[in-house]
Specification:
With 157 residues, the protein is mainly α. It has helices at residues 3-41, 47-53, 66-71, 73-82, 84-92, 103-107, 115-123, 127-155.
């Protein structure tokens, strides 16, 4: 590649960088204006609402896309500060702790227990916690069946 072609490519890249920066700035200003409007009006700050209402703040009437909010770091951090749904979603995400399984919890289960209460308690667990608990219970049952069979076999000797 000769010198003149590499200069042309670098000029094109500089032009492209400038255009990208202008678009990023445009998205940021429109996004901040839209988020401030939504907060003032008491409308939930969601990706969808920002995308819909941003058209009113855009001179071209195009607005900004939901992915633009996610990819623009400054705009996304501003969204995180003002979005209640984002905060609620993050507080619900609890780190999954491996459930400690002990035999005493199985032994305490009574046939006369309140099934609705147990159902509500299980519905509060995450899918992963339920799977871990089910596997632990199956392991406990399998071990007890094995123990019972060996006991029965030894009694007939």
């Amino acid at each position: 590649m000769n010198q003149s072609q590499s200069t042309i490519h670098s000029d094109k890249r500089q032009w492209l960088v400038k255009v990208h920066q202008q678009r990023r700035d445009r998205s940021l200003t429109i996004g901040i204006q839209t988020i401030n409007f939504l907060v003032e009006q008491g409308i939930p700050v969601t990706y969808h609402n920002i995308s819909e209402h941003s058209k009113a703040f855009d001179e071209k009437g195009k607005g900004i896309h939901q992915n633009t909010i996610k990819r623009n770091e400054e705009l996304h951090s501003y969204y995180q500060k003002h979005s209640r749904t984002y905060k609620v979603k993050n507080t619900r995400k609890k780190p999954v702790m491996p459930s400690t399984f002990d035999e005493s919890s199985i032994r305490r289960i009574s046939s006369e227990r309140d099934v609705n209460f147990a159902k509500r308690r299980y519905l509060q667990l995450s899918k992963e916690e339920l799977v871990n608990r089910l596997i632990a219970v199956e392991k406990y049952i399998a071990e007890n069946q094995e123990r019972w069979l060996t006991n029965q076999f030894e009694q007939f000797k």
